[in-house]
Hints:
The complex is a heterodimer. Chain A is an alpha/beta fold. Chain A has one domain (about 5-190): Class I glutamine amidotransferase (GATase) domain (Rossmann fold), CATH 3.40.50.880. Chain A has 5 helices and 12 strands. Chain A is globular. The two termini of chain A are about 15 Å apart. By secondary structure, chain B is an alpha/beta fold. Chain B has helices spanning about 5-15, 30-35, 50-55, 65-75, 85-95, 130-140, 160-175, 180-190, 195-200, 220-225, 235-240, 245-255, 260-270; strands spanning about 20-25, 40-45, 80-85, 100-105, 125-130, 145-150, 210, 230-235. In chain B, helix 6 (about 130-140) links the parallel strand 5 (about 125-130) and strand 6. In chain B, helix 7 crosses helix 9 and helix 8 (about 180-190) crosses helix 9 (about 195-200). The two termini of chain B are about 25 Å apart. At the A-B interface, helix 1 and helix 2 of A face helix 1, helix 2 and helix 12 of B.
Amino acid sequence: MNRTITVGVVAVQGAFAEHCRTLGKLGASAKEIRSVSDLSPTPDGLIFPGGESTAQGKLLRESGLFDMILPLIKGGLPVYGTCAGMVLLAGRIENDDRKHFAAMDITVRRNAYGRQLGSFMTTGDFAGIGDVPMYFIRAPYISSAGKDVNVLSRWDGKITAAREANMLVTSFHPEVTEDPTVHSYFLSMISQGH
Amino acid sequence: MIISEQAKLNRDLAKMLKGGVIMDVTMPEQARIAEDAGACAVMALERIPADIRQAGGISRMSDPKMIKDIQAAVSIPVMAKCRIGHFAEAQILEAIEIDYIDESEVLSPADDVCHIDKTMFRVPFVCGARNLGEALRRIAEGASMIRTKGEPGTGDIIQAVRHLRAMNAEIARIRSMRRDEIFEAAKELQVPYELLLSVHEDGRLPVVNFAAGGIATPADASLMMQLGAEGVFVGSGIFKSGDPKKRASAIVRAVTNYLDPKVLAEVSEDLGEAMVGINEKEITVLMAERGK
């Protein structure tokens, strides 16, 4: 790596600090994105953290970030969405009328494992790289995916991680664990020009 | 400190609320207004603190039916309160799959000695604290999230400020100690050594810390965030104000943009009347004194 990769972590609501910490451990620079001015210069990639997609979607629109970020995603900027971030990127949400970036050819189910008491942890293979710890927190899963979507993980038959071109999504939260595998994978998407 | 998998998971659940606003609601319509305004969770209760204060008497856990109606109305997490020490109320709330239980001084305490042993539950708990000692005792009992007590139902921010400043000052003091002084400090604060050691090493509480009690304006929310809160609870401040919808959205934006006075000015404009408020010197019941 010749220069430090800068990843913007969307910081309107949710567990953004944990992503910044994980990126820091991997030698990347993390920048919190709260307003339009934080997007210049354009970072090398963007992370949409876990939190509440309803709150995040509204704050993204009100701040003007939504209109700035959508063309960046369409233009191929590498992006990674965890949990609520997956919901923001999904083309279709089967149990919600709301739509956000709708950039990725996947259908997701929000709160697919039930309420907070349905939250759980497990380990499973990610992208054929090896087992990683997986924290599912009121998590969504992908109920169907288009033909250009590459499935990277499954749990109990459901798709829990996937990639389509410049877009990576996971149902689970690697940022609350000490395992940097998924973030390394995302940084390699950035350094390979996705 | 080694904690159970469930405790780790519950602490991580609370992290997803950070940078967000948790709003008190008493009916499904209010819950939907809160969700549409960008609340990261709602607190379902029959009466908001300002009304509890006015009504006096004994206030208890809300009717499970009313809580279930709110759960059905929104997709964001729903919290509910039980009385301090009332583990049977907590068991009922867990049975209806509440997302978080607030063991709360806003309700009448059921036990003036023991808090609930929250390690016996799978559902995460949030508890109020006025200082580091209270916070760490609640965490030792199994709380996965802490909030300042503030003085609920008053619209007076002074107590929440006092509690957060007290917490910060004590954390700074513990951080600056030599490691061998932590044993004595743990004795003095009446908290487990391992928890205090984690504060010494990390310079923060081991769980998410929100501000609560008396927050009524976007500026109040920004003040608490700048003092180090990781999010805010707004109780009476929204639905006791002139334009709840607008005020709710404004406080949500203020929490995200707490360091940006231009945005704060913009969202503070034209909000209509704030809740009336009671000065802390005018009240007879100090809820924050409940449960130490």
